[in-house]
Amino acid sequence: MNLPTVSKPFKITVEESVTNPEEAIHLEAISVRYRVPSERVRTFKEYFIRRLKGEVHMRTFWALQDVALNVYRGEVFGLVGVNGAGKSTLLKVVARVLRPTKGRVIVRGRVAPLLELGAGFHPELTGEENIFLNGALLGFSHREMQEKIDQIVEFSELGQFINAPIRTYSSGMYARLGFSVATASQPDVLIVDEVLSVGDEAFQKKCAARIDAFRLRGAAILLVSHSMDTIEAMCQRAAWLDHGTLKAIGKPVEVIRAYRERGG
């Protein structure tokens, strides 16, 4: 498939801190098809009754169509596009949360998906207790989390609130704890979906610095953000998704220009 490009994707060089040009993410003609009811169904009970009566009519749509791209170790790769363009679906495919309808996916190494910070937190447990709970969901042992807990608490800047139930947390505190747990270890592939708006400006800078440190140590980072300044500042390459198709891939400044002129 010939993709319209803003410019020929540039080659990653050693000078750009990429010491290993091996692909960490390889997507080959990825397509994802969803089936949804044509009419609005308010409850599962209503859906079940209508399904038994043969009154549910399904329609299909393609969330992604023939998307092909590579992300290299030591590279931050940005995704831009309006809501509903297919960005989150693409991240879920890379994170192995979602299986593509068609195509081939290769992801090398340990993946840390920052898709929904704090997913799995229990509101009645304290911040500290949720650190161990979330760590277990991410595949870490109790002993490993004991070794990490001090740095997690320090990075989150929650102080004495770490011993309070997280139902008392603000949304910013909740997300900060989630980010701190999810990034407590060096991943091979880091998937970031709009999490750089966590907390205040100072904490956002800490998050960006941690992500850049992962990159310098060789991690591949796939980043979605509606902030074009963030994409331009942090990414070596970027791609523009529109209605599930890849419209452009190349240098961030050029992809952003095309997105703003023709899509955003």
Task: Provide a short characterization of the protein structure.
The chain has 8 helices and 9 strands. The protein has helices at residues 44-52, 87-94, 127-137, 142-156, 171-182, 201-216, 228-234, 252-262; strands spanning 23-37, 58-72, 76-80, 102-107, 111-114, 189-193, 220-224, 237-242, 245-250.
**Beta-strand residue percentage:** 25-35%
Note the main sheet: 6 strands, mixed
Classification by helices and strands: alpha/beta
Low confidence ranges: 1-20
Q: Kindly state the mean pLDDT as a whole number?
A: 82
Care to count the β-strands?
A: 9
Helix content class: 25-40%
Number of helices: 8
Spatial arrangement of strands, main beta sheet: 5-6-7-3-8-9
Q: Write the H/E string, N to C.
A: EHEEHEEHHHEHEHEEH
Distance between the termini: 24 Å
* Overall shape: globular
